[in-house]
Amino acid sequence: MRRFFVIFKMDLRNLFKNPVLLGYNTVFAFILIIILGFLCGGDYANMKDAYQYYTVSLVIYGMINGAMTASNCFMERDIKRPNLRIIYSPVGSFPIYFSKILSSCVFDYVLHLLLLVILCPMLHVTLGSNPLYFILLMIPVEFAAAALGVFFCCIFKCEETTSSLLSTVVSIISFLGGTFFSLDGMGGVIAFASRLSPVKWLNDAFFALSCDNSLAYFWPVFLGGTVLSALLVLGCRLLFRTEDYL
Predict the structure, then answer these.
(1) Among 28, 66, 132, 169, which one is most buried in terms of CB atoms within 10 A?
(2) Is 70 exceeded by the pLDDT of residue 72?
(3) Does the global pTM surpass 0.85?
(4) CA distance 146 to 35
(5) What are phi and psi of 212, to 5 degrees?
(6) Residue 156 CB neighbour total at 10 angstroms
(7) Which pLDDT tens digit goes with each residue over 170-211?
(8) In whole angstroms, how far apart are CA 21 and each of 38, 77, 111?
(9) What does the alpha-carbon distance between residue 65 and residue 167 come to, in Å, rounded to a whole number?
(10) For residue 145, which of 81, 84, 100 has the smallest C-alpha distance?
């Protein structure tokens, strides 16, 4: 266990030293929320509702994009080389992939919480009467996204291929899920397609918590994210080969 935490701390330190990932999850997300909220304020009842919508939806978008953080942490060239010594150590293969998942999850979770701490009082955004539920629901989503990124790396064995594919998949499901604007009023076919996106389920759950103080979607999403995380970790265990990491 001590060896695992040594690897975990190294992976987490590497992530916090990456200015691109830091900026994307904080500065870029902050600017995007401000701009979209301001531009689309006239389409809502008032500016506050626009900021509420884009703060929640784009934080969810950031959580899903955590899959690319994990793929970068797992197989980015500058990280692979110093991590090669881990492969030849007696720790086994489990710490290699699981520490990447856990460190990516913690990294994204901390930065997204920081973003909410800044934006909520600044833009008068609410996370519901009990923000703890909102914060707790973020955990399995962040972990599942990180596990997905590492799982894809185990399949394709290439960080560039994985990131390109994940970027396309995340963009499609986020668009269908209503990250940038709701598709519910665009006809029955489009609304049905939107319901097929897992991002739509996440939006429904987090908006129910933040706007309606409803726990109707909390446990289905929490348990679903937990089960998906376990399945993806199991998939990593079955597919990961240390020789692919060389």
Answers:
(1) 66
(2) yes
(3) yes
(4) 27
(5) -110, -5
(6) 18
(7) 999 998 888 887 776 666 677 777 788 899 999 999 999 999
(8) 25, 15, 10
(9) 8
(10) 100
